[in-house]
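Lab meeting, item 3. Inverse folding demo.
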C-alpha cells in the first residue's frame, strides 16, 4: 500500500562546529559532525533499555535492524538530537497496527525515515522510525510490495522528482518483497537505486558509481533462491564527504571494522544484518565525523609507525596523538587477541608497565593537594611496620628514585613478570624486598621503591592504592580503563600478552599477578583513556599547574628523572614522559607542554624501549 503525504517542501538549518547542512539536508546522513552510538544483537529488553537511556541523553534513532527468529535480535544506530526534534519508534507492529501508527503520525505531521520488516515465528512484523516533519517534506512509503509493484512505483515516483532514502528487501514465502521510503528534496540530488544485485553485480556497480563520485547511502541484503542479493541506494555527494562501506562481515569482522572507523574519526550511519548460508552477516556504512581523516600529518605519522614496526614487530600496537587538547590521531596495528582475531583498537586495554610510575606520581601530588600526603615526610613515619633501615628516605625520595632502595636482582622474589600470589596491600608486598640493605647510589631507578611509596599512601589514607587510583584519577576524570591490572578479573577489551618467537611468530604469555608492584608496573589503560589522561594533565585538570611543575622538576642533578617522570629537551622544547616495558608490554607517553602535544604508544609485546622513545620523539618533533 502506498502512502503519499502532500505537503510543502522546506529546509532545516542546523549549525554545529560551524558546519551547516547541505542541500540534501532532508537526508538522515548529513555531513555534520554528530555525536553517535550504535549497538548490535540486543535482546528486546536490552534494546528497550538502550532506547530509554539514550532518549534521556538527547539521542534519537536513525536506523534499526531486526533479525527474524523466535527471539529477534535488535541492531540500532543513534545520532545526537541536535535540533531536539520529536521522534517516535515502534518495533513490533503487525500489518494493521502499522497502518494505524502510520495514519496517526501522518496526521501529526511526522515523516517516516526508516522502515524494517522481520518475522517472529511465522508472523510478520514491521518497525518504523518517525520524526517530526518540521521541514514539511513531501514523502511517501510502500511496504510489502512485489517485484512488479516495485517497478511500477519506481517509475511513477522517480518521475515526479522523489528519491529513495530507505529500502528493505526480504523473502516472504517463495517470493521477494520490498519496502521503500521516498522523499522529495528541495534541490535535485543525483541518486541511483539498483536491486536484485548478485555479489558480482554489486561489486561492479560499486566501482562504477564510486568513480562517478557517488557513495553508498543504504544497502539491504536478502535471499533469492538460496543466494544473497542486494538492493543499494547511491547518492552524489556534493561535498565529497569521506565514507566507507563494508559488507558480508561476520560478527567479529563487523566489530573490528566498527572500531577501526571509529578510531579513524568516522561514525556508523547505517547497519544491515542478514544471513548467508544460515550464518549472521553484517554490512555497514560509515561517514567522516571528525577532522581526523583530513589531518595533514596522518600519512607521515603512519609511515613512521610502519617503519618502526618493520623492525620492532608487535602483535598489537596502538597510537594516540593530541594537539591543543583535541585528539588528532588514533590508529592501530595487529591484534589484541590473535587466536580470536580481535583487532587492536584505541579501547584495547594494555599493560602500561613502568608508565605506572607516572600515574603514581600524579596520584602523589593529587594527595598532596588534598592534604593527605607530605612528600617531604619520612616513609616510615607513615608505615611504621617497615624495617628501621627505611627511616632515611622520604616519600618524595622514593618517587624520584633517590630512596636508595634496590631494583630487580637475579632470583628476585619480586619478579618482573609478576607473582602467582595476589597481594592485598603494598606493605604485604614490600616484605619481598624491604629486608634487604639500602644501596649507596644517590640515584637508582627502582620499581621496589614505588611499592614502598604506595605503602605510605595506603597508611596515610587508610585506602588501598587501587582505590586511590580510582578515586583520584580514573573516576573524577572519566578514565575508566585506568586501573590496577587484577589479572584474575575478566575485563572487557583487555589485550592478551605476547612475546616474539622466531623471525616472524609470536607466543602468547600467561599473565601473572602484578599486585606486588601496582604503583611501579601494574596499571593498565586503553590508548583512548591514556591519551585523555595526558590531555587533562597538560591542561592542569587533574592536578594544578604548580603541582605539574613541581612533579616534573628533578630534585638534583643526579639524573633527568623527577617524580614519576623523565624530563628533557628536544629541538628546543621541554618535555616530560615515561617509558614502560615488561612481558607483554611496551609503552610510552610524551607530553610537550609548550606545544600542548601528547603522544601515547601502547603495545602488547615487549620491545626495545629506546626505539619506542625515538619513535615518540620523532612523531612529536615532526608536529612543531
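The presenter then showed the designed sequence:
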Amino acid at each position: 500500500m502506498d502512502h503519499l503525504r502532500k505537503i510543502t517542501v522546506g529546509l532545516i538549518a542546523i549549525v554545529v562546529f560551524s558546519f551547516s547542512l547541505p542541500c540534501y539536508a532532508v537526508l538522515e546522513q548529513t555531513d555534520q559532525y554528530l555525536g553517535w552510538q550504535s549497538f548490535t544483537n540486543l535482546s528486546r529488553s536490552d534494546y528497550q533499555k538502550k532506547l530509554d537511556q539514550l532518549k534521556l541523553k538527547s539521542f534519537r534513532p536513525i536506523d534499526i535492524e531486526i533479525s527474524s527468529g523466535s527471539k529477534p535480535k535488535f541492531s540500532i544506530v543513534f545520532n545526537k538530537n541536535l535540533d531536539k526534534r520529536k521522534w517516535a519508534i515502534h518495533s513490533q507492529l503487525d500489518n494493521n497496527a502499522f497502518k494505524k501508527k502510520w495514519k496517526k503520525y501522518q496526521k501529526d505531521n511526522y515523516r517516516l525515515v526508516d522502515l524494517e520488516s522481520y518475522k517472529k515465528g511465522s508472523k510478520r512484523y514491521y518497525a518504523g522510525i518517525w520524526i517530526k516533519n518540521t521541514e514539511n517534506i513531501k514523502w511517501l512509503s510502500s511496504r510489502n510490495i512485489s517485484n512488479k509493484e516495485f517497478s511500477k512505483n519506481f517509475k511513477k515516483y522517480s518521475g515526479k522528482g522523489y528519491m529513495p532514502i530507505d529500502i528493505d528487501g526480504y523473502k516472504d514465502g517463495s517470493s521477494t518483497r520490498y519496502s521503500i521510503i521516498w522523499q522529495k528534496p528541495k534541490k535535485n540530488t543525483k541518486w541511483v537505486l539498483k536491486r536484485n544485485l548478485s555479489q558480482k553485480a554489486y561489486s561492479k556497480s560499486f566501482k562504477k558509481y564510486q568513480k562517478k563520485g557517488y557513495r553508498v547511502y543504504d544497502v539491504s541484503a536478502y535471499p533469492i533462491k538460496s543466494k544473497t542479493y542486494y538492493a543499494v541506494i547511491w547518492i552524489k555527494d556534493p561535498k565529497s564527504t569521506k565514507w566507507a562501506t563494508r559488507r558480508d562481515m561476520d560478527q567479529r569482522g563487523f566489530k573490528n571494522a566498527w572500531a577501526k572507523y571509529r578510531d579513524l574519526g568516522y561514525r556508523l550511519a547505517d547497519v544491515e544484518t542478514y544471513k548467508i548460508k544460515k550464518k549472521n552477516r553484517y554490512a555497514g556504512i560509515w561517514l567522516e565525523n571528525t577532522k581526523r581523516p583530513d589531518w595533514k600529518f596522518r600519512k607521515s605519522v603512519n609511515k613512521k609507525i610502519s617503519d618502526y614496526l618493520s623492525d620492532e614487530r608487535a602483535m598489537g600496537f596502538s597510537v594516540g596523538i593530541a594537539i591543543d587538547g583535541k585528539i588528532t590521531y588514533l590508529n592501530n596495528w595487529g591484534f589484541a587477541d590473535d587466536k580470536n582475531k580481535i583487532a587492536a583498537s584505541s579501547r584495547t586495554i594494555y599493560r602500561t608497565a613502568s608508565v605506572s610510575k607516572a600515574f603514581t606520581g600524579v596520584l602523589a601530588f593529587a594527595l598532596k593537594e588534598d592534604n593527605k600526603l607530605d612528600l617531604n615526610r619520612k616513609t616510615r613515619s607513615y608505615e611504621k611496620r617497615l624495617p628501621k633501615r627505611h627511616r632515611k628516605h622520604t616519600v618524595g625520595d622514593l618517587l624520584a628514585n633517590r630512596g636508595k632502595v634496590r631494583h630487580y636482582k637475579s632470583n628476585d622474589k619480586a619478579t618482573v613478570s609478576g607473582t602467582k600470589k595476589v597481594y592485598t596491600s603494598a606493605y604485604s608486598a614490600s616484605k619481598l624486598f624491604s629486608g634487604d640493605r639500602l644501596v649507596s647510589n644517590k640515584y637508582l631507578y627502582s620499581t621496589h621503591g614505588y611499592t614502598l611509596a604506595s605503602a605510605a599512601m595506603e597508611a596515610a589514607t587508610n585506602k588501598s592504592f587501587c582505590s586511590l587510583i580510582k578515586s583520584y584519577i580514573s573516576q573524577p576524570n572519566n578514565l575508566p580503563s585506568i586501573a590496577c591490572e587484577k589479572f584474575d578479573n575478566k575485563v572487557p577489551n583487555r589485550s592478551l600478552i605476547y612475546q616474539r618467537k622466531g623471525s616472524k611468530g609470536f607466543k602468547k604469555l600467561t599473565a601473572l599477578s602484578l599486585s606486588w608492584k601496582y604503583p611501579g608496573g601494574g596499571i593498565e589503560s586503553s590508548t583512548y583513556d591514556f591519551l585523555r589522561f595526558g590531555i587533562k594533565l597538560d591542561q592542569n585538570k587533574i592536578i594544578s599547574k604548580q603541582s605539574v611543575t613541581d612533579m616534573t622538576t628533578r630534585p638534583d642533578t643526579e639524573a633527568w628523572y623527577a617524580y614519576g617522570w623523565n624530563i628533557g629537551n628536544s629541538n628546543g622544547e621541554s618535555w616530560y614522559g615515561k617509558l614502560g616495558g615488561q612481558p607483554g608490554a611496551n609503552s610510552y607517553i610524551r607530553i610537550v607542554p609548550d606545544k600542548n602535544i601528547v603522544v601515547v604508544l601502547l603495545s602488547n609485546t615487549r620491545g626495545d624501549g629506546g626505539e619506542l622513545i625515538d619513535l615518540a620523539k620523532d612523531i612529536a618533533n615532526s608536529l612543531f
